[in-house]
């Protein structure tokens, strides 16, 4: 089969006459443009499943036996799934030992979260200074965001080589994952897209909290602080994480996000 991780790939395969196409449907909100005719469309949650069943039935689109839409599960990198028991056990041990909470913040929305992430960094800075949080900021491949965050961190009193570690390549992220030697603040900033995306996948297993907008990361098996969405459809991905118990409700303001972080620091129970 052709397994498509984006609708455009599934549509191209169908247009080329391929009749064994599997489309991994994104998000948790049923919209026509994320499914592909003639493909087997696999969805990640019951809201999407029943929503699409209703849409398909209304549009006389459903195949015999409903074979065009199936509820499958979450799309997760294999190494994260394979090591769920080990990684969760390590998180619980760190939490009970009151080790600094490791919080990974990937900047999504093509850099659209700049203002929110900057203000969140300012809110978390005292926790980093006190040794209760180890903050990891993934600025991706956005050069302007890198410069802005460095300026913000400098104003907050963080200095590279001291309480600020700056990593700019894939090898550096691999080394950090293996050593788990997190500085009070670690800034990840890259010149290429692959390293930027891979960094989050590499570090999720060794952090305690993933603080992110409700993108596809909302489905990852890690405690999640769901921060403000960029697109309205993302609200339903936050709801999915919340109903499963591994993600907060969407924190629409920096103040709300800060309160959740305070809870994570105060006790082991939320983690």
Notes on the structure:
This protein is α/β, with parallel strands linked by helices and 271 residues long. Helices cover 42% and strands 15% of the residues. The chain has helices spanning 7-15, 46-58, 78-82, 84-96, 114-130, 143-155, 170-179, 193-203, 235-244, 254-266, and strands at 2-4, 21-24, 40-43, 69-71, 101-106, 133-138, 164-167, 185-188, 209-212, 224-226. The strands form 2 sheets. A 6-stranded parallel beta sheet has the order 7-8-6-5-9-10, sandwiched between helices. Helix 1 links the parallel strand 1 (2-4) and strand 2 (21-24). The longest helix is centred in the middle third of the chain and has 17 residues, at 114-130. The protein starts with a strand and ends in a 5-residue tail after the last helix. 41% of the residues are buried. The mean pLDDT is 91.
């Amino acid at each position: 089969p052709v397994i498509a991780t984006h609708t455009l790939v599934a549509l191209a395969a169908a247009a080329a006459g391929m009749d064994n196409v599997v489309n991994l449907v994104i998000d948790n909100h049923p919209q026509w443009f994320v499914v592909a005719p003639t493909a087997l469309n696999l969805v990640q949650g019951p809201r999407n499943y029943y929503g699409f069943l209703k849409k398909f039935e209304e549009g006389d689109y459903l195949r015999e036996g409903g074979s065009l839409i199936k509820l499958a599960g979450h799309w997760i990198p294999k190494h994260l799934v394979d090591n769920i028991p080990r990684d969760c056990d390590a998180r619980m041990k760190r939490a009970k030992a009151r080790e600094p909470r490791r919080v990974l913040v990937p900047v999504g929305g093509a850099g659209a979260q700049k203002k929110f992430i900057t203000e969140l960094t300012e809110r978390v800075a005292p926790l980093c200074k006190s040794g209760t949080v180890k903050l990891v900021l993934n600025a991706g491949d956005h050069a302007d965001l890198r410069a802005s965050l460095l300026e913000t961190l400098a104003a907050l009193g963080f200095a590279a080589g001291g309480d600020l570690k700056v990593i700019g390549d894939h090898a550096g992220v691999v080394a950090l994952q293996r050593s788990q030697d997190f500085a009070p603040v670690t800034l990840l900033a890259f010149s290429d897209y692959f390293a930027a995306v891979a960094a989050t996948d590499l570090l999720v297993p060794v952090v305690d909290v993933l603080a992110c907008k409700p993108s596809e990361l909302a489905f990852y098996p890690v405690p999640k602080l769901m921060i403000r969405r960029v697109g309205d459809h993302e609200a339903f991905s936050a709801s999915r994480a919340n109903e499963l118990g591994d993600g907060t409700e969407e924190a629409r303001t920096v103040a709300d996000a800060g309160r959740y972080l305070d809870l994570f620091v105060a006790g082991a129970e939320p983690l």
